[in-house]
Amino acid sequence: MMYKVQVRFLFHSDIKIKIPESYDDSVFERLFGILEDVNEKYNSYAENSYIDKINKNSGHFVKVNDETIRILNKIIHLSKIIGGEYDITIMPLIRLWGFYKQAPILPSFDKIKKAKRLVDYKKIIIDKKKKRVKIEKNQEIITGSFIKAYAIEKMVQEMKKIGIKDAIVNAGGSSIIAIDEWGIIAENPEEEKEILRNVDGMPVRITKYGYNGKNEDNDLFEIKIKNTSYSTSNQKNTYLLINNEKCGHIISPRTGFPSQNKQVGIITKSAFFGDIISTGMYNQTPEKFYEIMGKLSEEMEISGFLINKAGKIFYFNMEEYFCGK
């Protein structure tokens, strides 16, 4: 099958949509329009979005719509299962570590302790009856770990309404949704490459590397996914350099320090859930990774892996996805 592609920059990422060439280009406008609508309404970085208003009025209730309440309720539910290592009120710690500063410095233990007092998703109050939300004074919600995947999942639902039965959406490599069957080569977090291809050999992203499974440049493994999503978290390209040490952007709400793991990959039906879980799992030990993935598997189909600081890979229910199986 022949495909057509459009790429646009949204949610601080290049969003790449690939659909059969038989569809008119106007379909792209319809699909990207959904992403733009979610960005405008729910992105914490978008001026006057519902989340932006909640942040700017911390300590007071803010009128919201039903969708905002549904989003927050689902996030809070997953946060409870993940055990506090995923928290959308993490922004005070992110700011403290200097991700918005020109010259970041290592924060003191006292400042970390103080910032941690503001990081607590349990203090988000949702009044469903009156359609309003309140966070504690000086708390701040950040949507970066879920809003892109939420928007893409909503867009894929529209794809299916249109009748598109074979497509792939690549949201900057961190969230990938496949309609029909596609293959992904999981890249080594220490290597500067990424390959994404169709199982039947149709390349999605072409590099100088081969397309026939594991290559000589130390890729981790190849998987195939069908009508599902693959979400991944790593800190290879998003970090601060403080005292010649790399400090990643995924910070543990419990410790207040950046996680030392290398990568997490999650396969779920819901890209929205997958992005949340991949971020929360990034802060876990292998033992907790298995424990929490077990709990999550009671509610949804889920598979994944964690690569710890030493580079050891821990798999959870991944066997059926490996190519050749």
UniProtKB/TrEMBL annotation:
Gene3D superfamilies: ApbE-like domains. The keyword Aminoacyl-tRNA synthetase does not apply. InterPro entries: ApbE, ApbE-like_sf. Keywords: FAD, Flavoprotein, Magnesium, Metal-binding, Transferase. Magnesium. Can also use manganese. It comes from the Bacteria. This is FAD:protein FMN transferase. Belongs to the ApbE family. Its cofactor is Mg(2+); Mn(2+). It comes from Leptotrichia hofstadii F0254.
